[in-house]
Design a protein that fits this description.
The complex is a heterodimer of chains A (106) and B (140). With 106 residues, chain A is mostly helical. Chain A has seven helices and no strands. The chains are: A mainly alpha (106), B alpha+beta (140). Chains A and B meet through helix 1 and helix 2 of A and helix 3 and strand 4 of B.
Chain lengths: 106, 140
């Protein structure tokens, strides 16, 4: 597996460490954008799984990140588009997550 | 005094808020004396270091803290400060066994994190970081 992707896949499993490390995680996710077209199907699946985990734990990640950065201000300063959704964890934490019942269409 | 002057100059260049050199020294001396983690965080940080292969699988908290001590005991290690609002995070960076490690603490010396950044130059290029000088220059 691509080493940066492997790092990302592990790092998203640790939301309760310092926000100082999460800043590196978000920078790393930026770098993976350019690598995405080169990833194998297995690596793309791993990236998708890791992304889903990051989004699912947005509140925990943001809790630590807010001790180091105001994501809204940073997005404004850096003109970060919604496509780089990982810089929107402060917003994502408020998005209701589908329950198993709704996700199956029941 | 010379170290303080250099620190002030560095701060001015980066347009960061003023930070007390003595406060940074006190925080780093606290880390040297004893690594104190935020409540409940020590094992979480160790688990991540093991998972990423930064320390051996069999490493204990003592193993991890030995790396931290190596960093903060290195006279040529470079001291930075991360500024966020009214908070400051003294940060020490140096190589340990060929790998660049970063140790960050709070202004009271409580351990914030210690890890080897994937890309130290990019990480430290964040304008919220201000370079103060080496441990030796700062008289830590």
């Amino acid at each position: 597996m691509n080493p940066r992707l492997a790092y990302y896949c592990v790092a998203v499993q640790h939301p309760a460490v310092s926000g100082a490390e999460h800043l590196e995680l978000l920078q790393l996710r930026d770098q993976l954008v350019s690598l995405e077209p080169l990833l194998t199907p297995e690596e793309q699946e791993a990236l998708g799984t890791a992304d889903a985990l990051l989004a699912a734990q947005a509140s925990q990640f943001h809790q630590e990140l807010q001790r180091f950065i105001n994501l809204a201000t940073y997005r404004h300063e850096q003109d970060i588009p919604p496509e780089r959704w990982w810089w929107y964890l402060d917003v994502l934490q408020h998005v209701p997550r589908p329950s198993p019942a709704t996700s199956t269409g029941a | 005094m010379m170290a303080d002057a250099q620190a002030e100059e560095a701060l001015g260049e980066r347009h960061a808020p003023p930070v007390s050199g003595e406060a940074v020294r006190a925080a780093l001396r606290q880390v040297r004396q004893q690594v104190r983690w935020r409540p409940g965080k020590a094992q979480l940080h160790l688990a991540k270091r093991v998972a990423l292969g930064h320390v051996p699988t069999q490493a204990t908290l003592a193993t991890y803290e030995a790396v931290i001590q190596t960093v903060v005991q290195t006279p040529t290690a470079v001291v930075w400060v991360y500024h966020w609002g009214t908070d400051t995070y003294p940060t020490v960076v140096t190589e340990v066994a060929g790998v660049v490690w970063l140790v960050m603490c709070g202004s009271d010396g409580t351990m914030e994190t210690a890890f080897p950044p994937e890309d130290p130059a990019t990480y430290l290029a964040d304008p919220r970081f201000t370079r103060l000088g080496t441990m030796e220059e700062l008289g830590v």
